[in-house]
Write a structure and sequence with these properties.
By secondary structure, the chain is mainly α. Among the domains are: about 50 residues; about 90 residues, Ribosomal Protein S8, Chain: A, domain 1 (2-Layer Sandwich), CATH 3.30.1370; about 120 residues, Hypothetical protein af1432 (Orthogonal Bundle); about 70 residues, 2-Layer Sandwich (GMP Synthetase, Chain A, domain 3), CATH 3.30.300. About 70% of the residues lie in helices and about 5% in strands. A three-stranded antiparallel beta sheet has the order 1-3-2, covered by helices on one side. A three-stranded mixed beta sheet has the order 6-7-8, covered by helices on one side. Helix 1 crosses helix 2, helix 9 crosses helix 12 and helix 10 packs antiparallel against helix 11. The longest helix is centred in the first third of the chain and has 131 residues. It is flat, with a radius of gyration of 42 Å.
Amino acid sequence: MAGLTVTLVKLLDYLRRKDAESEARRILDQAKLEADNIRREADLEIKEKDIQQRAQREAEFQKIRDELYQKERALAKREDELDAQAEQLRKQERIVETTQRKLTDRLEEVGRRKEELQKLLDMQRQVLHEVSGLSREEATKRLMDVLEMQLQQETGALVLRYEQRLQEMCREKSREILLTAIQRYAAAHTAETTTSTVDIPNDEMKGRIIGREGRNIRAFEKATGVDVIIDDTPGVVIVSAFDTVRREVARLALNKLIADGRIHPSRIEEIVLETQQELDQYIRSMGEAAVQEVDVRGLHERLIYLLGRLHFRTSYSQNVLRHSIEVAFLAGMIADELGLDAALARRCGLLHDIGKAADHEAEGGHPKIGAELLKRYGEPAEVVHAAVGHHDDLRVENPYTVMVAAADACSAARPGARRETLERYIKRMEELEGIAGSFPGVEQAYAIQAGRELRVMVNAKETTDETAAKICRDIARAFEERLNYPGEIKVTVLREVRHTDIAR
């Protein structure tokens, strides 16, 4: 019995050791599993942090690359400008050198001929004296007779030469007069005005356009930059602005507001924005129509859009887009007569004034701006040179520049094509807005009332009521110092604070 008990005790002890070992192995396995999980989580966290740091470094590298790219572009642009200036200086130097060389040659030729003439005179005097035995006075008289006869012959030759030249000038002038008459008949011209009339259904609509305390008309004038004139004239409202694009946007937007009937500041801003987008499409269609009319192919889309903008630009009251089309056709006809490439000549003529569509966005005259635009968009060298040299600013290097300059003169000089008064008027309006826009804090400036009033919008965050008053006074003083104008110019500075919230 005692042996059985001992055996049973040993068996129980063995079983407990087995259970303890199993439990220990289970605990070890669980610890290893937890350790593996912790290690994997740590590895994942390290990898995630590494990915984040790598993305951050990549973003920093991308920013640095972008900055370097912008600097590289600026340097390339500056280098192109310097190359263009250097090329122009080299051309001027070559012209001066050629002129100096020709002048030196002429002086040497004159000196040589003078010496030869003196030798001939001395030789003839000596021969006459030896052969004839004449006295000095008699020899001088006979020599003078011979010189007089030679001079008469040379005078006759000069008269014939100048008669021929005069006949050629007369024929050329006759062709020019005929060409001018043909152009006057073929292309009608309508002088641009500075006002547009909008019909309204009744006089009650005038009150709705003005709005309570004038808020509607102020919002409309601020959004469009025009002057809305509402007077006692029945059934019409007048929109006035020297900028034809602004005036057209205002006219179309006002027609839409009248037809819609909902006239309030937010709706006005929405309609004006929509109309501006529609007008951009119209400008593009005008450019495409001009390209198709002249049959010029392969133009960049940006150049087509700039051509459309020329429809709203005038030069001495002549529409610049129609002027460009006229020049294109005239240059093509001249090229046909001379046996040159008419298509290239039309391209040069159509794009010669393209700089006028962007001359308010860049510095320099429109020939230089136009040449830079054409070069940027891959136009041929003949087209670029025609744009920069059609006003005889450079030495002519190819015949297409001469043809474009001649066609430009024919289109601009025909009777009824241009008036100087409107161009001066627009220039004065642009000077008013430009001076006002140069002051800090000014966001927008609009010249209205034919230049008798200037409305200036200032940034409400950057200015106070006191600084706005100072800006108004400074602008008025600047006008007095820099401009010459009849009468007075009223300067109005507007500072508006607007708060918007949404009720849900």
